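Here is the promised in-class demo. Please do not try to memorize the tokens; focus on the logic of going from shape to residues.
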């Protein structure tokens, strides 16, 4: 199956060749990664959640210079400078915005009034319906397997994707536990029209994450991630010394305020960007157990699509 004969609501919505979206991960998804994925035919996303406003503007401008293809910006609604981020996105005429970790009603109307395509990340069918009611053009259903900030519902992708498909009529993108073309096919059989991939792109050459973190992900095995910090914002972490400190504190029943003190400031930057594998916060998905190499982002897109196409042609599935 080539991209020439593949078209669906997601590829048409974004103007891309393949229904493959790179997640906007903090400390990993800068302009180099976003432009590389977009140039390869997917949709690259700049992860605005770890950027100061001026830094975001710089990344948007560099991404524009590096690709003529569509790209997006991800904005977590819990980000303290979100109004500045939204204004920069409008000023720089970004065409596509992914929002997450909050109520899409807050900004969807203003963004769509500027002709911007808006996609919201959800962890339940109820929130998917709210996103549809808010006027979002599509939703990302992110299962419990995903890395980074996660839903409190702990619903796996296998359950969440069909539940969201039944709940909304807008295009659906699946996320959480997807790093191969066969997983992509499984998601689309369950009702998704595209996939958002995070952990696999962390281990791309263009990702701005530290090489120590990339190598830790490549070496991760099954069971080496776990949802943590549930009294704050649930986040899936690779197990290390910091994770074990948090685990011990949570087992002792400490308060959310005490967990905030333990977390401190800049903990995720320390781990994922600066490469401190002991004291840093290492956000990654369960599917890290399947990631075995650090390769160019374009090769990841190609690998995903070839694996997907081969799976579609496999008589085991569609004989």
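The designed amino acids, position by position:
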């Amino acid at each position: 199956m080539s991209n020439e004969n593949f078209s669906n609501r997601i590829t048409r919505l974004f103007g891309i060749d393949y229904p493959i979206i790179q997640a906007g991960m903090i400390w990993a998804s800068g302009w180099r990664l976003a432009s590389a994925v977009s140039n390869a035919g997917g949709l690259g996303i700049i992860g605005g959640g770890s950027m100061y406003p001026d830094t975001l503007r710089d990344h948007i401008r560099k991404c524009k210079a590096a690709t003529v293809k569509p790209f997006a910006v991800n904005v977590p609604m819990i980000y303290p400078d979100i109004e500045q981020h939204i204004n920069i996105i409008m000023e720089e005429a970004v065409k596509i915005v992914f929002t997450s970790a909050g109520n899409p009603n807050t900004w969807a109307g203003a963004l769509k009034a500027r002709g911007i395509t808006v996609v919201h990340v959800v962890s339940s069918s109820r929130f998917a319906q709210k996103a549809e009611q808010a006027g979002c053009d599509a939703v990302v259903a992110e299962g419990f397997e995903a890395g980074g900030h996660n839903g409190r519902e702990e619903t796996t992708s296998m359950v969440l994707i069909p539940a969201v498909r039944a709940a909304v009529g807008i295009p659906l993108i699946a996320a959480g536990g997807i790093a191969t073309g066969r997983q992509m096919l499984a998601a689309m059989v369950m009702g998704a029209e595209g996939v958002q991939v995070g952990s696999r792109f962390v281990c791309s050459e263009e990702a701005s994450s530290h090489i120590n973190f990339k190598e830790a992900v490549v070496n991760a095995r099954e069971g080496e991630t776990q949802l943590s910090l549930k009294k704050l914002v649930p986040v899936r972490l690779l197990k290390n010394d910091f994770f074990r400190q948090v685990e011990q504190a949570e087992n002792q029943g400490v308060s959310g305020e005490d967990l905030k003190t333990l977390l401190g400031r800049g903990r995720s930057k320390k781990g994922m960007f600066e490469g401190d594998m002991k004291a840093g916060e290492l956000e990654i998905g369960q599917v890290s157990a399947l990631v075995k190499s650090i390769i160019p982002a374009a090769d990841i897109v190609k690998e995903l699509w070839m694996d997907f196409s081969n799976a579609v042609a496999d008589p085991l599935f569609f004989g």
